[in-house]
Design a protein that fits this description.
The chain has 49 residues and is mainly β. The chain contains no helices and 3 strands. Helices cover 0% and strands 20% of the residues.
């Protein structure tokens, strides 16, 4: 099982031309590289800590 989160769109330009990298994703439209990180669960109801 992969530890990468599946992403569908570039967070910078919104395009779907994404390719996996060892450390995240690269967008071939805007030439940016980024990663998606899981931060944890939030409480039900959206209460702030």
């Amino acid at each position: 099982m992969s530890e990468r989160a599946a992403t569908n769109h570039c967070p910078y330009c919104g395009e779907t031309t994404l390719w996996p990298r060892e450390d995240g994703w690269e967008c071939r439209s805007c030439l940016r590289a980024f990663s998606v990180t899981y931060l944890g669960m939030i409480p039900r109801g959206g209460e702030q800590r």
